[in-house]
Amino acid sequence: MMKNLQDMLNGGSILITGGTGSFGKAFVRRVLQDFTPKRLVVFSRDELKQYEMAQEFNDKSYPCIRYFIGDVRDADRLEMAMRGIDYVIHAAALKHVPAAEYNPFECIRTNVHGAENVVNAAIRRDVKQVVALSTDKAANPINLYGASKLASDKIMIAARNLAGADGPRFSVVRYGNVLGSRGSVLPYFRNLIDKGADHLPITDDRMTRFFITLEAGVDFVLGSLAMMVGGEIFIPKIPSVRISALATAMAPDLPQKSVGIRPGEKLHEVMVTEDDARTTIGLEDRYVILPFLLDSPIYEKYREAGEFVPDGFSYSSDTNVQWLKDGPLAELVTQVESAQR
């Protein structure tokens, strides 16, 4: 079922929205390292971040790269950027939970209307495939960020009906917290430790999260791009981490103080809900939530590769069978921080 990425991306044209973010830079680095695309378009609204990124990835060393200033809220600009594009990775989003709660209109314009604009532009420009990045917070959301990403996911999955049999194919990748990404808990703890903090603040000692590295996230997106039929939500089988264990791994001698859960936060995250499980196939390295059309040809393709999960199944960070703790967790933190230096 997996297509050859070399055949797809060598000589192809790729656009990544939110291309100057943590994921975008890691994705661009991997594509330039492993493939020879005709064009690789970095689409984002931040001129400074594009300038800084161009110091590492410039058009002299990498003639295929293009920097396109634009906002996913701007449908016309997005459509212009997609001229001649084969594959779109949609990574642009307003992701900070408290910021989304305080700025709800901005969150909706970027995450929901932006997804709509990506779908329309991809259809009008005859793009081949679109993979949209989602989040564990989109499953049973309790905050606006999660709700907006759930709406974005629904737009992407429904887009196959709008595109028709000969139009673009759309799929979603949903995964947990990216270890070490901008705004995540690892750099937050590191900043406190480096400044000589006398304790690390923990929202709740029981809190758990799914964690994935940037490199593993890029691998998973590329694998999903090669595997996708259209209409799926791909979810990697990744380890859970107790946030207090992460703090201990980073500063074993530093005390921890509970400060309480912030508005819009969950104690644990879920990536496959019990309701989603009714159409979820388990593969060796991932779960795949299939569209709710039991007669769809997509079901036959995935039945050959895996099995439906049992009734009552859910994929939650507190009941996960994979855990990172103690030595392996400390070693992973060291690897992630060393790679960022």
CATH class: Alpha Beta
Placed side by side, the strands forming the largest sheet appear as 3-2-1-4-5-6-10-15-14-16
Structural class: alpha/beta
Q: What is the CA-atom radius of gyration, in angstroms?
A: 20 Å
Element pattern in H and E:
HEHEHEHEHHEHEEHEEHEEHEEEEHEEH
How would you sum up this structure, described in words?
The chain is of the alpha/beta class and about 350 residues long. The protein has one domain (about 5-175, about 215-235, about 270-315): NAD(P)-binding Rossmann-like Domain (Rossmann fold, 3-Layer(aba) Sandwich), CATH 3.40.50.720. It is about 40% helix and about 20% strand. The protein contains twelve helices and 17 strands. It has helices spanning about 5-10, 20-35, 45-55, 75-80, 95-100, 105-125, 145-165, 185-195, 215-225, 245-250, 295-305, 325-340, and strands at about 15, 40-45, 65-70, 85-90, 130-135, 170-175, 175-180, 200, 210, 235, 240, 255-260, 270, 280, 285-290, 305-310, 315. The strands form four sheets. The protein has a ten-stranded mixed sheet, sandwiched between helices. Strands 7-9-11 form a three-stranded mixed sheet. Strands 8-12 form a two-stranded parallel sheet. Helix 10 (about 245-250) packs across helix 12 (about 325-340). It is globular and about 55 Å long. The mean pLDDT is about 90.
